[in-house]
Write a structure and sequence with these properties.
The protein has 115 residues and is of the alpha+beta class. It has a single domain, classed as Alpha-Beta Plaits (2-Layer Sandwich). Helix content is 17%, strand content 33%. It has three helices and six strands, in the order βααβββαββ. It starts with a strand and ends with a strand. The relative contact order is 0.30.
């Protein structure tokens, strides 16, 4: 079953330009951030060694649980940012592959996960 999530927080990550260039179907990675001080269910979205944004906190609880249960280990590239917005080191958990798409109605960036 495919589930679609909105990609949020791009302005905080300064990734709008990267996201605007992504093609539908581009492979991305969902990464659990279990110690994120803003959201205990935080799930970030990565591409090419950069955190692009997050899955909305209104929709991430089930996805966080799935990543905790079956996610693969994820280690970001050495030159990628590893600090949270509050300046604390990011503790990364499990990861799952996903793909990029745009909303058919608005063109807003979305993430598709096969569960």
């Amino acid at each position: 079953m495919k589930i679609t999530y909105s990609l949020v927080g791009m302005s905080h990550q300064k990734s709008e330009a990267i996201v605007s260039q992504l093609q539908v179907g581009t492979a991305l990675t969902l990464v659990r951030e279990p110690r994120n001080s803003f959201d205990r269910n935080a799930v970030s979205v990565w591409h090419g060694g950069k955190r692009l944004g997050y899955i909305s906190s209104k929709k991430n609880a089930n996805l966080a649980k799935l990543l905790d249960e079956i996610g693969s280990p994820f280690t970001p590239p050495a030159d990628s940012p590893t600090m949270a917005m509050d300046g604390a080191p990011i503790a990364l958990g499990g990861a799952l592959p996903c793909t990029f798409q745009r909303s058919f109605n608005s063109g807003y960036p979305q993430i598709v996960v096969e569960e």
